[in-house]
Design brief:
By secondary structure, this protein is of the alpha+beta class. The chain is built from ten helices and eleven strands.
Length: about 250
């Protein structure tokens, strides 16, 4: 089998929207070369083949060295989903090293209808923002260990932490939606939420405590209350329209 034929056949089998680089083909190409005892083509040749396919419209270029198999609609080519665009920043050798957070997650949680071209990633170590195609990739420091199971809880806590920055909504509307989301969690997940929140800033801990108390889970809030400075106040105008026990949590 020729190298270009292998690459073409491999791409044909990929799902629409899948993001890939030359590295996805290197090991197989090396095997083909070894069997044929041919001179190695190298990564440059693979990249050239991918660039030719992008120029012909068979695949699309996301950014330098990154390509995807586009899905077409009546409005043209659809972009890959957010996970595909940054998956190399979320997993490494099968291990989870980051998770999607911020604007795209606020939309998924029903906190806003706005879609942004900024993709935010939670990681234990952060790096400067950078551009990838039409997207800006930025990072949020996460002090908790990131696991597959706790990512949905970390996303909720990030929304609480950055409630003032959620676009196209109000604090009262966001509190109402967060109350609904947390109310539907299992008791086990609520306990985990409290444990994870202890590594978040005080304002986030206070708001989580007020929400849990509002939905009838006062017994879970003691670690949060003990972690707060009793003389510090937190300014969240509009929260009083949804939450009752704000004085206890020093939320104004």
């Amino acid at each position: 089998m020729k190298i270009t034929e292998y690459i073409t056949n491999s791409i044909d089998r990929l799902p629409k929207g899948y993001v890939f680089t030359y590295a996805d083909f290197m090991s197989k190409v090396k095997n083909i070369e070894a069997k044929r005892k041919s001179r190695p083509v190298g990564r440059e040749a693979i990249i050239k083949a991918l660039n030719r396919m992008a120029a012909s419209g068979k695949i699309a270029k996301l950014s330098k060295g990154k390509f995807y198999k586009p899905e077409k609609s009546a409005f043209g080519k659809l972009q890959p989903n957010r996970y595909q665009i940054v998956k190399d920043l979320l997993e490494e050798d099968g291990k989870i090293i980051g998770y999607l957070t911020g604007y795209s997650i606020y939309n998924q949680l029903g906190l806003t209808t706005q879609i942004s071209n900024i993709i935010q990633i939670g990681k234990n170590t952060v790096r400067p923002s950078f551009k990838r195609g039409e997207y800006k990739i930025s990072f949020v420091l996460q002090k908790n260990t990131i696991t597959k199971d706790n990512i949905p809880l970390l996303q909720i806590l990030d929304a609480i932490r950055y409630i003032k920055k959620i676009p196209d909504t109000t604090i009262s509307s966001a509190c109402k939606r967060l109350k609904e989301i947390i109310k539907d969690l299992s008791k086990e997940n609520k306990i985990s939420l409290v444990r994870l929140a202890l590594k978040y800033p005080p304002a986030a801990r206070a708001l989580l405590g007020a929400i849990l108390e509002e939905i009838g889970n006062r017994s879970l809030t003691e670690p949060l209350l003990k972690s707060l400075n009793p003389i510090t106040t937190y300014n969240l105008p509009g929260a009083e329209k949804v939450l009752t026990f704000l004085d206890k949590w020093n939320i104004k």
